Amino acid sequence: MPQVKLTKTAIDALPTPTTDTVYWDAGCPGFGIKVTPKGRKVFIVLYRTAGAGSRLRKFAIGPYGRVTLNQARVTAQKVFAAKLDGRDLAAEKKESRRRMVADRIDDLLEAYIAQHVVHNRSGPEISRMLRREIGSEWGARSIHEISKRDAIDIVTAIEHRGAPIAANKALKAIKTFLRWCVGRAVLDRSPADDVPLPAKQITRDRVLSDDELGRIILAARRLGCHYGDTVEMLALTGQRREEVARCTWAEIDLTAQIWRIPSERTKNGKAHEVYLSDQAVAVLARAKSEAQFVFSKTGQFAFQGFGPSKRKLDVLANVTGWRLHDLRRTCVSGMARLGTAPHVADKILNHQSGTISGVAAVYQRHDFLAERRKALEIWGAHVAFVVDTLRAEQSETRKAA
């Protein structure tokens, strides 16, 4: 291979060969420029990975014109410096190109959903959102092409649709997915880590007063159907909406007055026992015992029409600005007011971590079943008193009118 002192003038004067020809720089061994029969000129670096006799590596810096001679020399020095540090930039570049092709987002997304999302209680909803927002936008791209701006663009588009809370949820899901990629050594760091939530998160603290709670339960009974029973059961047990709505008779032991929620139906994946007060049993007595689902019109499918039913309930109860989840907070706050200890309330709510945490949580395995039973009995009696008192007042008011 010929050697020349590479200058801009010398490179411009190089002839077009019949075969690929490399002209090595006389002043920098291993650095040169390859000229092809089509007249294309490309700066290259040739080096051995580990001294004499070791494998030769060729690193393509870039085409002359797009890369200046000075830029090429600087890059060549970086390649030689990396070799001294034990790095092989040519191999790293080849691996980077392979990963750009192999690590497609649609493949990674489906693997993430199958291994991580489907096991969550809200898995179907999260899966649909990930495929809709990420899969449709990024699907055919490599995960290594994704930047912070890409994450911001998706979240901003959702926010512009008038759904700031949905934008928050999408960003959290994106961050979790990208961190999973980091954990799998697909990414070195997540490009979405520093992206702020688009909407301000406001922690709800709504606790219904006894009067509001009584009006809601009386309205739920007037509304009837399976939604009304679901609402009253939420108020009496303090469990989550989907746990109550998807309750089956197979989980109910009326003799022991116990409702056993299996681990696959709880948020934290931990099986949970709920004591059923006499008031809760009375709610169950109104349902069809021969059906599969307790709170269901046909018994074959869990109740779904929460939105329309909630609006009707608000009108009947004349209570607004509340959500069904507020019944859970109202229940535990009411029990605390009636003397229930915090660690017992945590057990009733099936909180994974609460007042007992750290080392104590590792060794504390007592379930406080007796204490939980007493607390729910007291709460059930209190709710019954509130409802009966309010019903009597409403009856007196009607008579006076």
Describe the structure concisely:
This protein is of the alpha+beta class and 401 residues long. 52% of the residues lie in helices and 9% in strands.
What layout of secondary structure does this protein have?
Elements: E1 3-4, H1 8-12, E2 21-25, E3 31-35, E4 41-48, E5 56-63, H2 69-84, H3 89-102, H4 105-117, H5 123-138, H6 148-160, H7 164-183, H8 210-223, H9 225-237, H10 241-245, E6 252-253, E7 258-261, E8 272-275, H11 278-285, H12 306-317, H13 325-337, H14 342-349, H15 359-363, H16 369-400
Parallel strand pairs: 1-2
Antiparallel strand pairs: 2-3, 3-4, 4-5, 6-7, 7-8
Q: What would you note in describing this structure?
A:
The chain has 16 helices and 8 strands. It is of the alpha+beta class and 401 residues long. It folds into 3 domains: 97 residues, Integrase, DNA-binding domain (Double Stranded RNA Binding Domain), CATH 3.30.160.390; 79 residues; 191 residues, Orthogonal Bundle (hpI Integrase, Chain A). Strands 1-2-3-4-5 form a 5-stranded mixed β-sheet. Strands 6-7-8 form a 3-stranded antiparallel β-sheet. Strand 3 and strand 4 form a beta hairpin. Helix 8 crosses helix 12. It is elongated, with a radius of gyration of 34 Å. The termini are far apart. About 3% of the residues have low confidence.
